Amino acid sequence: MNVRRIFTVVLLLFVAASVGYLVAGNRKGKDAVAEARVEPAAETGHKIMAYYFHGNSRCKTCRGIEAETYRVLQQNFPEALKNGTLVWKTVNIDRPENQHYFDEFQFLSRIVVIADVQDGKTVRWDNLDKVWQLYRDRPAFDEYIRSTAAEYVEQVHG
Hints:
This protein is of the alpha+beta class. Helix content is about 55%, strand content about 20%. A hairpin with a 2-residue loop joins strand 3 (about 110-120) and strand 4. Helix 2 (about 60-75) packs across helix 6.
């Protein structure tokens, strides 16, 4: 009889913990969407979009790639970020309204994309798919992001 009671209590605790985990996970997803909406992009003019595409589940490396990519952009293109020539945007690709990015940029997983956008239309883009391979080699990672973004930013500035 004691074993049955202990089993019931453990099972109830497991269910309560699972529900708590699900509620906390949904709250985090809503916070991420709110963050993405802070970075609106104008539909007219010529600008460079630097996207980081992520999903609902984010590992340490995923978060690191996002943070390090943004750091490289801030260090190398502060004026372009400030004046809107270069726009940084994180996008949760697990959300239904963002599924069009898979077709637009032809990628299969979490990735950085640099895109040339003219009057709201993407005219050219590069998938920086080597970020996963280069992440542990900080100088190579930084140069990969910097050189690709520089090629695009220089086009806008002439």
